[in-house]
Amino acid sequence: MMQARIERLGHHGDGIAPGPVFVPRALPGELVEGVLEGDRIEVLRILEPSQDRVRPPCRHYKSCGGCALQHASDAFVSAWKLDVVRTALVAQGMEAISAGIETSPPHSRRRAVLSARRTKAGALVGFHTPKSEVITVIPDCQLLHPDLIEALPALEDLVALGGSRKGTLRLTVALTQNGPDVAVTGGKPLDPTLQMELAAIAGARGFARLTWEGELVAQAAPPTQRFGVADVKPPPGAFLQATAEGEAALLRAVRSAVGNAAKVVDLFAGSGTFSLPLALGAEVHAVEGEAAMLEALNHGWRGATGLKRVTTEARDLYLRPLLPDELNRFDAIVIDPPRAGAEAQMREIARSSVRRVAAVSCNPVSFSRDARLLVEAGFRLADLVVIDQFRWSTHVELAAQFHR
Ligand SMILES: C[S@@+](CC[C@H](N)C(=O)[O-])C[C@H]1O[C@@H](n2cnc3c(N)ncnc32)[C@H](O)[C@@H]1O
After folding, report:
1. Whose CA is nearest to atom 16 of ligand 1?
2. What is the three-class DSSP state of 52?
């Protein structure tokens, strides 16, 4: 048995005591007592709790891996996320710009990736328990939108039918204007009987679309997302901002960065989350690696009225970033890369003569590395807001604007 005083919170949400020793779900300043296993203390008692410690709002929190920071106050989590961004910027030699934070409310997650397994009695659908293969079922989840919670029994029916007892299934579920859009991988292979039975469940439970290992099983209604005035049907399992509130906050930040630009290029455009709303006021060129997402974007644009021209280009922006000549046709750039960031593309933006950049990122470390390239090329980091679509998690997302 040993005691330890927590000094700071690590990137995965563990408390860190001198050593370093990692203490799950402990907060800075706390004195804890527990058993040391390797470099971790499993806490038996918190001897001196932090003032930031709160009672977790969710009854599943103890076993569920869906959330990591429910034992901390909202104010603490916000300050911590802002500090993660500041630290990443300072590590790249940039100024710690004072940023705001917009946190999505509880019950707002409209897209989630759930784990599932068939059992003797039926099925388990939920989130993994931390560091284990156990799945915690989450009927009272505080994160998920009520319509996703309502879909859980139907998802269990799918898994009871199409899951094997050995493997874990992965269920990507997104709410659409016409019901849940469900994409399943890791289940039994489809045969005509299974296909019919799965389709019957999807139909009876009001799913807009069900795909199984990428194959369409049922589509009762178009799985529509509304981006601005356009209705878009993204491909199965496609990226979608995790909450409607987060998407709106990101769009506000992007709009503010783009200003009254007449021509905008949207890099890593997905299915048009930013391109289509921006097309109300600007011509937009959307560039993205997944051709199917661009097809959905293009179809949405063609079906909408009142939008300026939107063009699309399927292109791997890691291997073939847009070059300065191509970028210089535009007045503003929107860039929203995956976690790895967009170093190659940022180097070309730095060499271009474009003066306005809206950068969205889900990784403050790769963002700061890329931002430095812009700052070294004469851009000013004019504004930054942390947009927390993953409340109670350690994810940190942000939107920034650069001018020169
Ligand atoms: C964070 S998502 C943003 C999507 C979109 N901006 C949105 O808000 O919905 C990143 C996008 O980058 C795309 N992507 C990933 N790797 C890529 C690459 N090498 N080249 C081009 N696009 C890529 C993904 O398909 C995904 O749509």
Report:
1. 289
2. coil
Closest-CA residue, ligand 1 atom 22, reads: 289
From 361, 337, 209, 346, select the one nearest 270 (Cα to Cα). 337
Of 351, 379, 372, nearest to 91 (Cα)?
A: 372
Q: Check if 290 has its Cβ closer than 6 Å to any atom of ligand 1.
A: yes
State whether the beta carbon of 49 lies less than 6 angstroms from ligand 1. no
CA-wise closest residue to 309 among 334, 283, 328, 333: 283
93, exposed or middle or buried, with CB in 10 Å at 0-12, 13-18, 19+? exposed
Going from the Cα of 285 to the center of ligand 1, the distance in angstroms, rounded, reads 14
Long-range contact pairs involving 304-309 (C-beta distance under 8 Å, separation at least 24): 304/228, 304/229, 304/230, 304/231, 304/276, 305/229, 306/229, 306/280, 307/228, 307/229, 307/230, 307/276, 307/279, 307/280, 308/279, 308/280, 308/281, 308/282, 308/283, 308/284, 309/279, 309/283, 309/284
Kindly state if the Cβ of 225 falls inside 6 Å of ligand 1: no
Nearest to 88 by CA among 343, 383, 364: 364
Q: How far apart are the CA of 312 and the centre of ligand 1, in A?
A: 13
User: pLDDT 10s per residue in the chain (404 long)?
Assistant: 899 999 999 988 899 999 899 999 999 999 999 999 999 998 789 999 999 999 999 999 988 889 999 999 999 999 999 999 999 999 999 987 777 999 999 999 999 999 999 998 899 999 988 777 889 999 999 999 999 999 999 999 999 999 987 789 999 999 999 999 999 999 999 999 999 999 999 999 999 999 999 999 999 999 999 999 999 999 999 999 999 999 999 999 999 999 999 999 999 999 999 999 999 999 999 999 999 999 999 999 999 999 999 999 999 999 999 999 999 999 999 999 999 999 999 999 999 999 999 999 999 999 999 999 999 999 999 999 999 999 999 999 999 999 99
Quote the ligand 1 centre to 120 CA distance (angstroms).
Answer: 40
CA atoms within 13 A on the CB side of 250: 26
pTM over cut 0.85? yes
**Contacting residues for 145 by C-beta, under 8 A, at least 6 apart:** 107, 108, 109, 110, 175
Is 362 catalytic? The answer is: yes
Look at residue 173 and give its three-state secondary structure. strand
